[in-house]
Amino acid sequence: MESSVTGAIIAQFAEDMKSFSQAEVIVVGGGPSGLMAALDLAKKKVKVLVVERNPHLGGGFWLGGFFMNTVTIRSPAESILDELGVKYKQFEKGLYGVPGPLICSKLIAATCEAGAGILNMVSFDDVVLRERNRVAGVVVNWTSASSLPKAISMVDPIALEAKVVIDATGHDACVVRKLEERGLYKVPGFGAMWIEKSEDEVVKHSGFCHPGLIVTGMAVSTTFGLPRMGPTFGSMLLSGRRGAALAYENLRKKK
Ligand code: 48F
After folding, report:
1. Ligand 1 in reach of 123 Cβ (< 6 A)
2. If you take atom 16 of ligand 1, which residue's CA is the nearest one?
3. Closest ligand 1 atom, residue 232 Cα
């Protein structure tokens, strides 16, 4: 039995990795915007993989803010809560609340059920670039590789190809930052908090920032110098949805 269990784990991992090493879309970061993007794409039968450095998905979605559980959602994003079948409370017109663990687990479950691939405990390390510096994939390594003692930490990463990459790594905007390191983008960083303006602007600016690369969620603020938004999450979901729609349109044009 032991060898059957081991064999099952290895066989499934190998099958998944073989398939997702050539994905249509790779989403880096499994927070609310990345999961939302992956969910919408998977529902449309797109081969999409989420790369997440932590063992758990959800990013900042488990906690509403200040280590408290209430996630706030502003209109019109409550329609996504309806789609996910999550009950919510109205605080005032246009402002809703839902327990973080409930909405986060529902979004994760929906994304997995829709067929998105999940590669957790794996960190984005670098971009794959092709002609005219188009982003054509990601270089990744086990998250644990970076915490190994120096003498044994020289673990070469591997690369995964994708037609479109989505940077959903939150405030860090790791993928866009890597383009900056390579002299291909100048990152302004995010501005001071202004919830209302930030929510609208983040959704509006979600999309391609470089050939082959879409940004969603708080990475949009960092990439385009928009105000930070604080503990409200409606635009994270709407941003992921917009990123998915643009990725889908781009894939269709390529076919
Ligand atoms: O930060 P995060 O939740 O991103 P988001 O979808 O949502 C932002 C909100 O949670 C909140 C906010 C607005 O309401 O201010 O902060 O924009 O999730 C980002 C995910 O990316 C993962 C990280 O562990 C988290 O789960 N991540 C970050 N860097 C890497 C990464 C990396 N280098 N490789 C893989 N995953």
Report:
1. yes
2. 60
3. 14
Chain centroid to CA 227: how far?
20
Atom of ligand 1 nearest to the CA of 169: 21
> What is the best residue among 49, 169, 171 to mutate for testing ligand 1's pocket, by most ligand atoms within 8 Å of CB?
169
DSSP strand pairing (95-99 vs 89-92): antiparallel
The pLDDT tens digits of the residues spanning 12-35 come to 999 999 999 999 999 999 999 999
Residue 36: both structure tokens together: 């939302």
Tell me, using a 6 A CB cutoff, whether residue 29 lines ligand 1: yes
Residues 6+ apart with CB under 8 A from 202: 217, 218, 220, 221, 226, 229, 235, 236, 239
Give the residue among 169, 168, 175, 189 at the shortest CA–CA distance from 135.
175
If one counts the domains in the chain, the total is: 1
C-alpha–C-alpha distance, residues 17 and 118, integer Å: 10
Domain span at residue 37?
24-61+101-254
Q: Quick check: is 73 in a domain?
A: no
Asked if pLDDT for residue 218 goes beyond 80, the answer is yes
Whether 189 is in a domain gets the answer yes
Query: Which of 23-32, 79-88, 145-154, 209-218 shows the lowest mean pLDDT across its residues?
Result: 145-154
Residue whose CA lies nearest to ligand 1 atom number 22: 29
Task: Report the C-alpha gap between 113 and 121 in whole angstroms.
Answer: 20
CA–centroid distance, 182 to ligand 1, in Å, is 22
- Does 228 map to a domain? yes
- Closest-lying ligand 1 atom to the alpha carbon of residue 58: 26
For ligand 1, atom 25: residue with the closest CA: 59
